[in-house]
Design a protein that fits this description.
single chain; 149 residues; alpha+beta; 5 helices; 5 strands; disordered N terminus
């Protein structure tokens, strides 16, 4: 992002005519803080984009598995938006299945049944995370159907 660095901002605030140099150091800090709080904040400080991807997998014939990829600043997050649990409802003991699958497939499954993972620089590439989330969503869906049956 453009703009000034934190050090440049503090230098500017220290030399700002709006801060009285006769104040003691603690009062100058308070005055500098007030000046910072009064500074305008750019409207788009956080960039966010989303993609809804068709993974090529299906829950059942004709029902494709989509995953959402959210890019926020330098972070990327992949989720199924709770697709499996939304299709099956919440059968008895679904949380037990979620805990087990989360451990086995190395994914996060929330209390609402949303399957997700972050994409991190030192981890697997984005395409692999997308495939992992889609596969976990399909496995979760199939196991939830068995709970009902």
């Amino acid at each position: 992002m453009g703009g000034t660095s934190g050090a440049e901002t503090m230098l500017t605030l220290r030399n700002s005519p709006s801060i009285n140099p006769r104040l003691d150091p603690s009062q100058r800090k308070v005055s500098a803080l007030r000046s910072c709080l009064e500074m305008p904040v750019p409207a788009n400080t956080v960039s966010r984009t989303e993609e809804l991807l068709d993974t090529g997998l299906e829950f059942r014939p004709g029902d494709p598995i989509h995953v959402r990829v959210v890019h926020r600043d330098q972070r990327t997050h992949v989720t199924d938006d709770g697709a499996a649990i939304n299709r099956t409802g919440s059968p008895t003991h679904w949380q037990d299945v979620a805990h087990r699958l989360g451990r086995e497939l190395d994914v996060n499954i929330s209390r609402r049944g949303v399957i997700s993972l972050p994409v991190v620089r030192v981890g697997p590439p984005r395409a692999e995370v997308v495939h992992r989330i889609a596969g976990a969503s399909r496995a979760f869906y199939q196991e939830l159907l068995e709970l009902d049956g």
